[in-house]
Write a structure and sequence with these properties.
- The N and C termini lie far apart (about 40 Å).
- The strands form four sheets. The chain has an eight-stranded mixed beta sheet, covered by helices on one side. A three-stranded antiparallel beta sheet has the order 13-7-15.
- The protein has one domain: Double-stranded beta-helix.
- It is α+β, with helices and mostly antiparallel strands.
C-alpha cells in the first residue's frame, strides 16, 4: 500500500496507493548517470512500476534509457491511431484491431519464445479523456491465493497465443495479416510456448502468477476447465489494491517490470488522436523462455 514519500539519493519517491508502483521525482532520464540508473534499478525491482512525469523523451533518448536495463526486443514504436498522412485510422483496420487487442490484461511477449523483461512507455499525444493504462501486481495476486489454489496451480502450465487472445476478443485479422504476423504468435501452424502458471521472478526470487489473455489450454484439463480456471485467476488477481490505472499527461514516461506486472489499455474516443511510444526490453532466454514440450 502507499507509504510515505522518501528520498533515494537525490531522487524523491512517492509510492502509489496500491501494492506496487511509485512516482519518481527529481530525476532526468535522458543521459542519466550510472549511479542514478543503479538507484532506479533497485526501485524498479522494489516497486515494479516507476512513473516519471514531465520527461518529454525523444525516441532515441527513450531507447537509450531502456537499454540501461537490458537489450531491446524492439526500439521505440508508435502505438497510435494517427496515420502517416495525419488522418485517423479506421476502427475496422487490422492495426486498430491489434491495438484494441491490448485492452485485456496481459504480459508482453508471453506468446513469443522469450517473454519480455520490461518496457519503457511514453506519452506524446493524448486524448481529452480515456486511454489510461492499467497495471496489475501478479506477485501480490499470488500472495493473496488460498492454500488449495496455490497447491492446485503449482505444477500447471498454459499455452500462450496472440491468435487465441485476438480470436477470443472477436478481433479477427485477415489471413494475409495473420501470415505476416507469424512472429507475433498469430500463425495457427506455429506451436505456442508453454509457460507455468506460477513463475519465480529471476531477480527477486518471489513467485508471481503468469496468466493473462494470451494463456489458454492447460495440459491435463479440458478446454472448459482450463478457461474457467484461467478466467477465475485473472478476475481475482486484477482488483484493488493490486491494480493501478495511470492517467497520462503528455511527456510522462513509465518503466514497468513485465515479469511481475500485467497491463492493459483502456478505450478512448477513436475520433481523437493518441500517440504513445513503446520500447520493449528483451527477456533473458535463460530465465524467460517457455517450458519444453
Amino acid at each position: 500500500m502507499a507509504g510515505m514519500e522518501h528520498a533515494v539519493g537525490t531522487i524523491r519517491v512517492e509510492p502509489l496507493d496500491a501494492t506496487f508502483g511509485a512516482v519518481v521525482h527529481d530525476v532526468v532520464l535522458a543521459g542519466a548517470s550510472d549511479e542514478t540508473v543503479a538507484e532506479l534499478t533497485e526501485l524498479w525491482l522494489e516497486y515494479a512500476l516507476l512513473i516519471f512525469p514531465g520527461q518529454h523523451l525523444t525516441q532515441q533518448e527513450q531507447d537509450d534509457f531502456a537499454r540501461r536495463f537490458g537489450d531491446l526486443e524492439f526500439t521505440a514504436t508508435p502505438l497510435t491511431n494517427i496515420q502517416r498522412d495525419g488522418t485517423l485510422r479506421p476502427i475496422d483496420h487490422d492495426l486498430s484491431k491489434s491495438l484494441r487487442g491490448n485492452e485485456r490484461w496481459h504480459h508482453d511477449s508471453t506468446y513469443m519464445p522469450v517473454q519480455a523483461k520490461g518496457a519503457v512507455f511514453t506519452a506524446e499525444i493524448i486524448p481529452t479523456e480515456g486511454g489510461n493504462t492499467g497495471f496489475a501486481d501478479m506477485r501480490a495476486a499470488y500472495d493473496a491465493l488460498d492454500d488449495d489454489t496455490r497447491q492446485r496451480i503449482g505444477n500447471l502450465a498454459a499455452y500462450h497465443s496472440r491468435r487465441y487472445s485476438m480470436d477470443r476478443a472477436n478481433l479477427h485479422v485477415t489471413e494475409e495479416d495473420a501470415d505476416r504476423y507469424q512472429i507475433y504468435g498469430y500463425a495457427a501452424d506455429i506451436e505456442p510456448p508453454l509457460r507455468p502458471l506460477v513463475k519465480v521472478h529471476p531477480a527477486t526470487g518471489r513467485p508471481n502468477l503468469l496468466i493473462g489473455q494470451h494463456a489458454h489450454s492447460i495440459p491435463g484439463l479440458t478446454a472448459d476447465e482450463s478457461e474457467a480456471l484461467l478466467d477465475r485467476l485473472n478476475d481475482e488477481a486484477c482488483v484493488r489494491p493490486r491494480t493501478y490505472f495511470h492517467t497520462w499527461t503528455e511527456g510522462d514516461a513509465v518503466l514497468w517490470d513485465n515479469r511481475r506486472l500485467m497491463h492493459r489499455a483502456t478505450p478512448h474516443d477513436p475520433a481523437q488522436p493518441r500517440r504513445m511510444w513503446h520500447t520493449r526490453i528483451a527477456g533473458d532466454p535463460a530465465t524467460e523462455a517457455g517450458l519444453p514440450t
